[in-house]
UniProtKB/TrEMBL annotation, chain A:
It comes from the Bacteria. InterPro entries: 4Fe4S_Fe-S-bd (IPR017896), 4Fe4S_Fe_S_CS (IPR017900), Cyt_c_oxidase_cbb3_FixG (IPR014116), Electron_Trans/Redox (IPR051684), FixG_C (IPR032879), Ig-like_fold (IPR013783). This is Cytochrome c oxidase accessory protein CcoG. PROSITE patterns: 4FE4S_FER_1 (PS00198), 4FE4S_FER_2 (PS51379). Gene3D superfamilies: Immunoglobulins. Residues 255-282 form the 4Fe-4S ferredoxin-type domain.
From TrEMBL, chain B:
Belongs to the CcoP / FixP family. Its main location: membrane. This is Cbb3-type cytochrome c oxidase subunit. It comes from Novosphingobium resinovorum. Pfam families: Cytochrome_CBB3, FixP_N. GO terms for molecular function: electron transfer activity; heme binding; iron ion binding; oxidoreductase activity.
Length: 483, 303
């Protein structure tokens, strides 16, 4: 076990222990490569995909258009008042994390988290420039000289280039990517673009290049939430101490195979760990379950002719079962447990609700604000007028004619601030430009004896029966004040 | 700093010292903070110190330190206001050059004028006309379709420029209704009769012959023989449903006996011409605005 710390040396602040993780190949390492490639590819390619929305809308498949307050995602266009779709997606992402954690533990941390992906990437750069673990340790201890400085500068330059290429690519989600690309490199892009790129490049450079596991252990809130979420039924990377202990060197354990366990204390699991921890001390917040130690130990076990899985994905419960001599539970069975199913149900429920809302939404919208001050106007002929501000939304990429009608309120007619009172009628039509909102101030005038009541504004896109939006509002009258 | 806590002991699982307290069997580990955290903390202190040097910060006896950048929130506001004025400059210039009758031909300018007018209204006009411009007894409702002096853009602008019954402004709206009661022009009984006739004009009371006669003799000059009022004198239409000073018999009697006559400031000189144009556009937009009548050549010929 660990040496007890020297109490006289114990400081309130600890220096970061650099991590020199060794190169390793194996099943999980290859999965990590694949996921990294996939994540980066999706991230880089997405803004460059085109999607034809006709002449009135941008052709970028995925676009967060902050200036016009639109969010485009392939065939879906989200308006600000439909932000619940985005909120719903965020909630799904949150519950999705719970779901994944419940089913397969910290898989997000180990494979898909951007911090993990970037750390992994930068550690490969370390290996490329400075060599593998031992060479890097040597270089770390070596005094500063021209050779070391040169290596560091080259390495940091590569860090910076990667940071620019990855962190900086984020801006292409917020504007037409090809245009922004040209503008960016010709120096004519908006200062906000440069500021964003500078900030994201700097944070990627610092967090991925230097902070690394410190982010996971000290800065990220997620591990803390996860420690509360994981239990003995959660899948984690587990060192099977009943099988490994007591550990001894290969030589010693070969001499007395009955006394010693399978672990030959070769430290390979520690050497490959990207966060520099020793999994043999049990589950800990520093373990992101990247499974590289499984790859390392499996290789050792193969070499010394032992069965693999001394370190393996297992729940603590299952490790206990195995210790008691029972066969391990199949992973699928570990995954399907009530908690996971409950998360899945909630997650899928929200997803289906969003899909339903998406399928049934109309591309015609109406919101009505009634003038409250004054609530009504008495006109010289004794009739009563109410004023309303209508906002007609045409959420399609072409101009559409829409009919606005008063439903209810017998005898009432309306006119607008862009028409004459003489033209007042029960219905009127307006053409709403493509993908736009038309504000319309509407005056509704009702005969003298009308009582206060509710009525409805109805907006129907011409020739499209399904495209109707309704809004019920109040009509106030003087009679209401003294009934 | 690195004092060994007397009660601190090593936690078995982690080999870390405990802080020496125990809560329900739970002990806190004395895990050291990462050093970069400390440096971040120092950096924040340095930043804060620098910040308090370049920006106003330290309280002194009568004010605070000025900061080397010379920044003030007032200056910031000033800059914002100037920037806002600069963005409005084109609109303001266009409005200044334009006769108000032309405004409806320029929907963009009209919208800007209405928005600017709404803001100016909230500062200058709500005191009398109310936040929604609905007025109150004695203060005209600007939303309705009843206008004492006329409700087209040009007329509203004139009213704004010169006010109502403003001494010292030659072009002000001036009309006077005699104090029929307090000056002894009519007896109380006669006033009562006239009031009855006036209310009968809009069907609010039964008419009477004496009242009709008295009306014809005393009131028709301004209000017209049928009581339809006259915009030339700002005389209210007595046949409609809108009563500026109240529509009950008592109200009408009081108004004949000792009339209340409202005043409105002449805004020339108090507000710039563009703001006045904007106010006119806003008031016109409230729902009762009238078309500007086409100029009549004959009317111009005969002064
Ligand atoms: S890699 Fe396996 S055998 Fe080697 S120290 Fe780690 S657990 Fe023991
Ligand atoms: S202990 Fe193993 S699984 Fe955990 S972070 Fe280190 S290498 Fe990855």
């Amino acid at each position: 076990m660990n040496k007890p710390p020297d109490m006289t040396q114990l400081s309130l602040y600890a220096k970061r222990e650099p991590v020199f993780n060794r190169r390793i190949d194996g099943k999980f390492r290859r999965i990590k490569w694949a996921i990294m490639a996939l994540c980066l590819a999706v991230y880089w390619v997405t803004p460059w995909l085109r999607w034809d929305r006709g002449p009135y809308a941008p052709t970028q498949a995925v676009l967060i258009d902050l200036a016009h307050r639109r969010f485009y995602m392939f065939g879906i266009e989200i308006w600000p008042h439909e932000f619940y779709f985005v909120a719903g997606l965020l909630i799904m992402a949150g519950i999705g994390l719970f779901l994944v954690t419940s089913a397969v533990g910290r898989a997000w941390c180990g494979y898909a988290c951007p911090q993990t992906v970037w750390t992994d990437l930068f550690q490969h750069v370390d290996r490329l420039i400075d060599g593998d673990r031992n060479a890097r340790m040597r270089l770390y201890k070596a005094p500063w000289g021209p050779a070391k400085i040169a290596r560091r500068l080259v390495k940091w330059a590569i860090y910076l280039a990667i940071s620019l290429a990855t962190g900086g690519a984020w801006i292409y989600y917020f504007a037409d990517a090809p245009t922004l690309w040209t503008e960016f490199w010709s120096g004519t892009a908006d200062p906000v673009a440069y500021a964003t790129v500078a900030t994201l490049t700097a944070t990627t450079f610092v967090l991925g290049g230097f902070m690394r596991e410190q982010v996971c252990i000290y800065m990220c809130p997620w591990p803390r939430i996860q420690t509360a979420m994981t239990d003995e039924k959660s899948l984690t990377v587990t060192y099977k101490d009943f099988r490994g202990e007591p550990r001894a060197s290969l030589k010693k354990s070969q001499k007395a195979p009955d006394v010693f366990g399978d672990c030959i204390d070769c430290n390979q699991c520690v050497a490959v760990c990207p966060t520099g921890i020793d999994i043999r001390q049990g589950p800990q917040v520093g373990c992101i379950t990247c499974a590289l130690c499984i790859d390392a130990c499996d290789r050792v076990m193969h070499d010394i002719g032992r069965p693999r899985g001394l370190i393996d994905y297992a729940t603590l419960d299952d490790a206990e079962r195995e210790k008691a001599g029972q066969p391990p539970t199949r992973h699928l069975k570990l995954i399907w447990r009530p908690r996971t199913l409950a998360y899945l149900a909630v997650w899928a429920g929200i997803g289906l609700a969003l899909l339903f809302a998406l399928g049934t939404r109309v591309h015609t919208g109406l919101t009505v604000a009634k003038d409250r001050n004054p609530p009504y106007i008495l006109l010289s002929d004794g009739s009563v007028r109410g004023a309303y501000t209508l906002r007609l939304r045409n959420m399609e990429g072409r101009p559409r004619r829409m009919e606005i009608a008063i439903v209810g309120l017998p005898g009432a007619v309306m006119w607008t601030d862009d028409s004459a009172r003489a033209d007042a009628a029960r219905t009127l039509t307006r053409t709403i430009p493509a993908d736009a909102t038309l504000p319309l101030r509407v005056y509704v005038v009702a005969p003298p004896t009308t009582a206060a009541q509710d009525f409805t504004f109805r907006v129907t896109a011409e020739g499209e029966a399904r495209e109707t939006a309704l809004s019920e509002v109040t009509f106030d009258t003087p009679q209401e004040a003294n009934p | 700093m690195a004092e060994h806590h007397p009660k601190g002991r090593l936690d078995e699982a982690t080999n870390t010292e405990t802080v020496g307290h125990e809560w329900d069997g739970i002990e806190e580990l004395n895990t050291p903070l990462p050093r970069w955290w400390l440096w971040t903390f120092y950096a924040c202190i340095v930043f804060a110190l620098g910040y308090s040097v370049v920006y106003p910060a330290w309280p002194m006896l009568s004010s605070a330190t000025q900061g080397t950048l010379g920044w003030t929130s007032r200056g910031e506001l000033d800059k914002d206001m100037k920037a806002a004025a600069a963005t409005r400059a084109k609109t303001v210039a266009a409005l200044a050059d334009m006769r108000i009758e032309e405004l409806p031909k320029h929907p963009e300018l009209m919208r800007a004028a209405v928005a600017g007018g709404a803001a100016a209204f909230r500062i200058n006009c709500v005191q009398c006309h109310g936040a929604g411009a609905a007025g109150s007894k004695g203060f005209p409702n600007l939303n309705d379709d009843d206008w004492l002096w006329g409700g087209d853009l040009k007329t509203i602008e004139t009213t704004l420029l010169h006010g109502i019954r403003q001494p010292g402004d030659d072009a002000t709206r001036m009309s006077i209704m005699p104090n029929f009661g307090s000056d002894g022009l009519l007896t109380a009984a006669q006033i009562d009769a006239v009031a009855g006739h006036v209310l009968s004009l809009s069907g609010k009371a039964r008419g009477n012959a004496e009242g009709a006669k008295l009306f014809a003799d005393n009131c028709a000059v301004c209000h017209g023989p049928a009581g339809k009022g006259s915009r030339q004198f700002g005389a209210p239409n007595l046949t409609d449903a809108i009563w500026l000073d109240g529509g009950t018999k008592d109200d009408v009697v009081a108004q004949i006996g000792k009339p209340h006559m409202g005043v409105m400031p002449a805004w020339t000189g108090r507000l710039d011409p563009v703001t006045i144009k904007m106010l006119a556009a806003y008031v016109h937009s409230l729902g009762g605005g009238e078309q500007t009548p086409a100029p009549e050549p004959e009317a111009a010929a005969t002064p």
